[in-house]
Design goal:
The chain is built from 11 helices and 20 strands. The protein has 405 residues and is of the alpha+beta class. The chain has a domain of 280 residues: FAD/NAD(P)-binding domain (3-Layer(bba) Sandwich). The strands form 3 sheets. Strands 5, 6, 12, 13, 14, 15, 16, 17 and 20 form a 9-stranded mixed β-sheet that branches. Strands 1, 2, 8, 9, 10, 11, 18 and 19 form an 8-stranded mixed β-sheet that branches. It has a 3-stranded antiparallel β-sheet with strand order 3-7-4. The structure holds flavin-adenine dinucleotide (FAD).
């Protein structure tokens, strides 16, 4: 086996979470390795606005996440590229008259959040990472194995034959984390039996900078506003539905797909004029029982995946990143090894509760809206209408979802 290159911290995965963590730790006298299977490059993002030019993967970033990206020097680039603030949110039940409206004016904010293409976030973070002299990038490079022995740095073997040793190994390698699996972290997980179809669509009427969400018995459907021009309006869709329905919808040609979608969203944005190619992602709720072991920490999707109905996944992940970086840097200032279990346990304590709460809330919502029983339908419609009349409760909900509460 090759002699390992030694680092204070090795991060596996340079998606949004891993790149953000490397950027947050950089510049503080720590040596950092960042390992990414795909080539990490600053891509030339498409200019102009056209249906097929949008990344089908977008994130609804909260003001808190935007603040974190700003502190990492990445937000300026993200904001300079096309993105769309959403100021209003309309949520309604397909089975009744219940509807709830959220508006940024109710919480004195300029927007509830921003819809940003994922590749724009990754590219802005890559610019930051590639400019840092204390981050050694292994990309494209894939983790082959990792091993943790008591009181020793964690050993990481890459498929290229290179070996690394680090006081702290961070798994930011996503929902199917190999680090989590190899080190033997237990998870609690359940399959929703759902997949989410994502695509970009052109709609007839202005989206009014509103995130539209309709709860259907088959699952939630969201239309998220994208930058638009010359009275051509675009939205990103996240359409979750039972597995057995997905293949039929994916098999539809453009015109019948647009008609199905128009019906599913009750024509609120007029006709669906065109759709980009569709992709489907399996939805599984997963939560690691522990986020840490001596010398190892899980962050973001490696620690938890959540139903995308409230667009909170990477927002929670970025908060993991912020807290882990804060604990590691505070420890480093006092000469504490970043892999020390007491330090890592503080990170776990500060994040697990909030993540669990959000996951439970999303799961509850999804189940509540799946039920067809008449009393439950009546109750949730009355509940939605009632809540819509309670400004203080709504403000609390909004502040929490925006990461401000
Ligand atoms: C349909 C859908 C819609 C969503 N919408 C939203 C939204 O609106 N708002 C929101 O906050 N969240 C949303 N999410 C969730 C969000 O996309 C995820 O939380 C986020 O992408 C996770 O980022 P990550 O960096 O943890 O993982 P990933 O993005 O999965 O990145 C992991 C990285 O690790 C690398 N990697 C993996 N294995 C290895 C290996 N062995 N060696 C080296 N590198 C490796 C991968 O190449 C990848 O770059 C949505 C999710 C879905 C499915």
């Amino acid at each position: 086996m090759a002699e390992p290159q030694c680092f204070d911290i090795a991060i596996i995965g340079a998606g949004i979470a891993g790149s953000a963590l490397a950027a947050a730790l950089s510049g503080n006298g720590l040596s950092i390795a960042l390992v990414e299977a795909a080539p990490l490059v600053v891509t030339d993002l498409p200019e102009g606005i056209a249906l097929d030019s949008f990344d089908p993967r977008v994130s609804a970033l909260t003001p808190r996440s935007a603040g974190l990206l700003q502190s990492l020097g990445a937000w300026e680039k993200i904001a300079a590229y096309r993105h769309c603030p959403y100021r209003h949110m309309t949520v309604w039940d397909a089975e009744g008259t219940g509807q709830i409206e959220f508006d940024c004016a109710e919480v004195d904010a300029p927007a509830l959040g921003h819809i940003v293409e994922n590749r724009s976030i990754v590219s802005a973070l890559a610019t930051r990472v590639l400019a840092a002299t204390d981050i050694t990038l292994f990309s494209p490079a894939r983790l082959e194995s990792c091993e943790q022995r008591e009181s020793e740095p964690v050993r990481v073997q890459l498929e290229s034959g290179e070996a690394l040793a680090a006081d702290l190994l961070v798994a930011a390698d996503g929902a199917l984390s190999r680090v989590r699996e190899m080190i033997g972290f237990d998870t609690r997980e359940w399959d929703y039996g759902h997949r989410a179809i994502v695509a970009t669509v052109e709609v007839e009427h202005s989206h009014q900078h509103t995130a539209w969400q309709r709860f259907l018995p088959s699952g939630p459907l969201a239309l998220l506003p994208l930058p638009s021009q010359e009275q051509r309006y675009y939205c990103s869709i996240v359409w979750s539905m039972q597995d057995e329905l997905v293949d039929n919808v994916l098999a539809l040609e453009d015109d019948p797909f647009c008609s199905e979608l128009e019906m599913a969203i009750e024509g609120r944005l007029g006709r669906i004029l065109a759709a980009s190619p569709r992709f489907a992602f399996p939805l599984r709720q997963r939560h690691a029982v522990d986020y840490v072991k001596p010398g190892i920490a899980l962050v973001a999707d490696a620690a938890h995946t959540i139903h995308p109905l409230a667009g909170q996944g990477i927002n929670l992940g970025l908060q993991d990143v912020a807290v882990l970086a804060e604990e590691v840097l505070a420890g480093h200032a006092r000469g504490i090894n970043p892999g020390q279990l007491a330090l890592l346990s503080r990170y776990q304590r500060r994040r697990k509760g909030e993540n669990l709460l959000m996951m439970a809330a999303m799961d509850g919502f999804k189940r509540l809206f799946e039920h067809q029983a008449l009393p439950l339908r009546w109750l949730r419609n009355v509940g939605m209408r009632g809540m819509n009349q309670l400004p203080l409760v709504k403000q609390q909900l909004m502040r929490h979802a925006m990461g401000l509460g």
